[in-house]
Amino acid sequence: HAECRAWTWGRPPRIGEGRRHRVELSEGTMKAARTKRSEMTDISAALRTFASKGRPTKEEQAQRRQLFQKVIQYLTIGIDMSPVFSDVIMNAHTTDVATKKMLYHYITHYAQANADLALLTVNTLQKDGREEDPVIRGLALRSMASIRVPDLVEYLIDAIRLGLKDADPYPRKTAALGVLKVHDLAPEALAETEILEEVRKMLISDRDASVVANCLIVLREIDGERALATKQNVYGLINRIKDFTQWSQVTILETVALYKPADKSETFDVMNALEDRLQSSNSAVVLGTVKVFLHATLDFPDVHQQVFERLKAPLFTLANAGAAETAYAVWAHLHLLTTRAPPLFAMDYKSFFCRGSDAPAVKKLKIEMLTAVADDVNTYDIVSELCEYVTDVDAVIAREGVRAVGRIALDGDQNVAGIVDRLLQFIEYNQEHITAETLVQVKDLVRKHPRWIDQCVVAVSGIELETIVEPEAKAALVYIYGEFGQAMPEAPYMLEPLLDEFDEEEREEVRLELLASAMKLFFKRAPEMRDMLGKALAAGTNDANQDVHDRALMYARLLHKDPEAASRVIAGYKESVANFSDGAGFADKFGEQIFDEFNSLSVLYRKPAFLFTDDKPVEVPRTPDVIEAAGDGGGGSAMMGDSLIDFGDEPVGASSSRSAIDDLLGTPAGGGGG
User: What share of the chain has pLDDT > 90, as a percent?
Assistant: First the structure.
């Protein structure tokens, strides 16, 4: 550093200047080390001084508390304070609770890493476990359980036995959680004792709600959730549920939800006992109660439907009164119930209308629910509301509005002419994102309902393909040009610019759709499409993407081998699509499992828990076809220029495809000409 400064100041460094600076640095380091040792010595001496005082004054207790704060502060920033361990232990007789807590924190921190130091703390913790103050007894037991040293398990089990029989609830509930720590550390040693049986008895008989709640948590982890869902446990917990904290009530409701009543009478008894929990201000308690009601009535369809009607009011109230995060969680659960039984919510469709204060995520859920509950009575009111969302400043909400109108038109019957008109009017808005989403919906509409083809073709015929930027929308418009080109005089000329710039198109799905539409139009309007198809197939066979390459090569070979067969395969009659599976997600595939995991993150993520947790990893086995396609075991790999399709003994490659095009069209594939 001195040399650098010397050059910066405009003079060369003097001989020995850098070395002298290094000597100064080493002296500074040594001075800091001496200061640290001196400070550690002072702390140790002060701790011994305080330990020697049997009855310190209030001022001395405050000074000792400040000293312990300093020790914990140094420990927190990473300074090794283990040299004063014995001095800290000597102060264990203090009666100041704040100092005791810091002392236990210090002991727990260093005893976990050093078993020898842990053994030094046993006597101190055992002695504190017999103090008159219940807080000190509980803190000592918690500290002993937190050390997690196998050599101390024997002492910990004795302390837990004593704690479970303590007259004060704080040591008892601390001892209950200590049972779980022993089970995690040494389950065999715990199984040899009567402690678990004692905890099971306390679950029913203990007078304090916090102790019972801790016993429930421990037994759910050790015995399993379903093992606790017995009539005796469930009835005992339900009868005392008002005494528990809201967090504990949620745990109890999760246990009750696993209990299956014997008959309809018992089902009503359970629901009547939990009726007032629906009025709770805590969303988790309300949703937990809803889960109990729904699961208890699954075997009684008539009662199950009545439960839906009963649950709507508290859920709507909670969804509209809570914070944004809470509101989203409740609306997500309402979304699950709505999609599970749409007719039961059809009369409440106005409750799903979006408000200005709603978060975008909530608006999205509401739009999906409006789509689900649409029927013959409320469809036009719902569509009118959805059309208002199309002009929203948020492009995501605008798209959702268009998508919802398209979905209603797609799922409707013969009386949706007005809805189709509304959908096609969105094209006139001249907004890129609205037009793009409308084209996607129109493509699906004409595939499922051919009766709307003429009206849709007229509406989209004025759209310039070059103005569409989004790949999905561009592919949809290209599909319409190819499928219904015979009714659109300008179709070939709309496709021509894209076909001429085939190599410049970035998205694979658009290039594939261009090839398919060019083939379809060729069989409908051959003179106009002859040159364009040749260029497209030539460009496709040279494409770097294997799917595009193989598709173009397949088309070329079909044309070369049997043009009539190619016409039947590519441009033949197509049945209307009954159901679209592209949009089916986890919510459709795992609907029952998500419903079973009600009041959990599964509802918010719309996927079962095993898909986003490590509890049950899902392994997807490779099928024989996938294994064979991956290679022949000899180390070879498919080159980009090779084709995966084989129609016979013809050579594979771009040259064969060009010759096929030349033979069919009578013109070089890569050139133009009329």
Answer: 52
Position 366, amino acid? K
Q: Are the beta carbons of 2 and 23 closer than 8 angstroms? A: no
The continuous run of DSSP H or E covering 294 comes out as helix 283-296
**Identity of the amino acid at 181:** K
Tally of CA atoms within 13 A in the half-sphere of 103 that contains its CB? 26
Distance CA(263)–CA(251), nearest Å, equals 24
For residue 651, what is the DSSP state? P
* End-to-end C-alpha distance for the chain, whole angstroms: 79
Tell me the two tokens of residue 514: 């261009």
Phi, psi of 166 (to 5 degrees): -65, 150
pLDDT in tens, 61-109: 899 999 999 999 999 988 888 888 888 888 888 888 899 899 889 888 8
Amino acid at 463: I
The residue length of the chain stands at 674
Q: How many CB atoms lie within 10 A of CB 91?
A: 22
Which of 511, 449, 521 has its CA nearest to residue 484? 521
Q: Which residues contact 305 (CB under 8 A, 6 or more apart)?
A: 341, 344
Please give the Cα distance from 143 to 124 (Å, whole number): 11
- What would the DSSP string read from start to end of 607-646? S-GGGTSSSS----PPPHHHHHHH--SSS----TTS-S--
Tokens of 527: 């003179």
pLDDT tens figures, 1-56: 444 443 333 444 454 444 444 445 455 555 555 566 688 889 999 999 888 887 88
What CA–CA distance (Å, rounded) separates 341 from 329? Answer: 19
Token representation of residue 364: 């999205």
| Distant-in-sequence, close-in-space partners of 200: CB < 8 Å, separation ≥ 6 | 215, 219
The first and second tokens of residue 456, run together, are 């849709």
641 closest CA partner among 563, 555, 566, 542: 542
**Closest CA relative to residue 418, chosen from 395, 461, 386:** 386
- CA 135 to CA 206: how far, in whole Å? 19
Cα–Cα nearest to 363, from 319, 409, 307: 319
Alpha-carbon distance of 427 to 436, in angstroms, equals 9
Which residue type sits at 100? K
Q: Cα separation of 607 and 604, whole Å?
A: 8
Which residue in the block uniquely carries the two structure tokens 């000293």?
67
Distance (Å, rounded) from C-alpha 332 to C-alpha 276?
23
Name residues whose C-beta falls within 8 Å of residue 557's C-beta, 6 or more positions apart in sequence: 645, 647, 650, 656, 657, 660
Token digits for 18?
A: 């850098």
DSSP 390: T
CB distance 150 to 114 below 8 Å: no
Contacts of residue 132, defined as CB under 8 A and 6 or more positions apart, other chains included, come to: none
- DSSP state for residue 14 in the 8-state scheme: P
Q: Which residues contact 634 (CB under 8 A, 6 or more apart)?
A: none
Tokens of 172: 């008892």
> Is residue 374 within 8 Å of residue 407, measured between CB atoms?
no
Tokens 């033979």 found at: 663
Rounded-to-integer distance, Cα 452 and Cα 674, Å: 35
